[in-house]
Structures are given as structure tokens and as C-alpha cells.
Amino acid sequence: MASQELSEHPTTKKPLWQAAMHLAKKLKPNFTHPYLNDSDWKTFDIACGPPLDLKWGSSIGDDFLRLVELEKMQQIASQCEFDSEDWPEIDSEPEPYEQFSYAGSVAEHFDGYIKSVYLNKPLAEKLKWKFRTLLEGEEHLLRYTPGDAKWMIDQLASVKNSDLPHMSCILREAHKLKEDTLMFSEVWAVIILAILFLQNNSNSEYEVVPVTVLTLSGMTFRIVQGFVDCKEWRVKIRKSSVMAIGYEKEDFQSRAMLWLRWLLAEPILPGKH
Questions:
Q1: What span, in angstroms and rounded, lies between the C-alpha atoms of 42 and 221?
Q2: I need a labelling partner for 85 at 20 to 30 A (CA). Which of 4, 25, 215, 256 fits?
């Protein structure tokens, strides 16, 4: 899409494919813009719902996830020896030009936590998700690094055997996250991951592909959830507040457990809680 168009595919007659491709083509001219401005919401058919609550009290992640409870997450942390993970010395707030590299360090360190979970074979076998890096043909769709508006997806996750259509990703941003708007990359990720799911699962009858995005920028983060509504031909999104990660190892471990709570959540269809 950034350098070439998505190829024709057997799913092209499906309403979800048509809606997602329509929205992607509308949004494509903004590929180099970091933020959505006030007019973009209407122009690109984007609706933002109530904020996501990241407190541990609720077990429901929007309409599509059953989140890991705190006690269970603490058990996972103990089984996978999260305390043994190293934490690089970070003792200063990043300058604007350092947001991307700091986010990269955070993403790299968080990857160690993900790997420790999946190295625990009894635990890994019970999890619904599989994580992977981008394939060569996906990089032009899910990374933009030539200029100042840098962003990239480091990892994708999907449900094992494609039993359910849910997708998630870890997104690294070069620009500071703002409470009053979304990043272009966040909306783009929701649309493109829906398209990739349909490309890889041409027999899927699902009309919704729920996408969860963990966005990292500097030493801050937020979680975004969204899907392409193929009836209204628009993107519907909910986002959490922007939150600090913290500079101590204990701070990061707490955040890593929160992120895993969402990224390892049980995927469910709406109305199946």
C-alpha cells in the first residue's frame, strides 16, 4: 500500500474486505502524517468510543477479550521468573528526537518477557495466541521509517489455528502520544491487520476482526482497540489514557504484566462473555 497495492484476493467480494480496502485507500495519503487532525475523523470515517479502563478490577477488555486476572498474572510472572529479567539503565526523559529509540528499547526488553512466557511449554500450550515478527511482504505496509514521522510494528499476534479472527500488535511511535487524538499508525494498524487476516484466511466467515494495539512512544504507552465496521464502512476505536512506563525495574515489570494481561487475554466474540 505504501509502495505497492495489495494484490487481488478471493476475499475481495466480502463486505469486510471491501470496507477495509476502502478505508485504507482513503487513509493512504496521510501515510507520512503522525496525528489525525480534527477534520480527519469525519473525512476518514473514524469513530472513537468510551476510553478503555486499564485498571485491574475489570476482566473485560472491550467486547472482544476476557482479560487475565491479577492473581493469574502474578502466577505467570512467578512461573516465568520475570524477576530475573534485566532492565537497562534509563534515568532521563527522552528528548523529542529520542522517542523512537527509547520505544525500541522498551519493545526489545518486553520481548524478553514474551519469550519467557512461551519458553514455559506447559503454559504456552494453554495460551490462545501465537506471536511473530513481520514477514517480508508485510514490512512496506506496517513500517514507515524514512522521515520524522517514524513508526513501525515490531510484532504481530494472532489466534492459534485462526480459530478466532482477533489480532494484536506492538507498535513503536516516534511522536509523543496525545490524549485528544489518535496516531495515524494506530488507525492504520487496525485496518491493515484486518486485511492481513482476510488474506491469510480466505475461508473465514467472520465479519469483524478485533485488533488490539500496544503503542509505545518514548517512556509512555497506551492500548488501542478497534475494528472495521463493514456495515457502516468506518473504523471504530477505543483507547486508554496515555500512561508513563516508569524508570525502575519494578515499574517496568508492573507494566509488562499489564501489557501481557491484554496481549494474552482470552479472545471472545461479542456477547460471549
A1: 26
A2: 215
In one letter, which amino acid is 11?
Answer: T
Q: Are 263 and 214 in contact (CB under 8 A)?
A: yes
CB–CB of 179/153 below 8 Å? no
pTM over 0.90: yes
Which residues neighbour 68 within 8 Å (Cβ) at sequence distance 6 or greater? 76, 260, 261, 264, 265
b/e per residue 62-77 (b: at least 16 CB within 10 A): bbbbebbeeeebeebb
- Residue corresponding to grid cell 520505544: 103
Q: Are 23 and 211 in contact (CB under 8 A)?
A: no
SS3 state at 77: helix
Q: Tell me what pLDDT residue 4 has.
A: 42
Higher pLDDT, 202 or 22: 22
Average pLDDT (15-24) is: 94
Nearest to 260 by CA among 70, 105, 27: 70
pLDDT at 149: 64
Question: What is the rounded CA–CA span in Å between residue 2 and residue 26?
Answer: 13
Which cell numbers hold the place of 19? 470496507
**Mean of pLDDT values over 160-168:** 91
Burial of residue 203, with CB atoms counted within 10 A of its CB: 0-12 exposed, 13-18 middle, 19 or more buried = exposed
Band of pLDDT at residue 163, cut at 50, 70 and 90 = confident
Cα 21 to Cα 8: distance, rounded to the nearest angstrom: 11
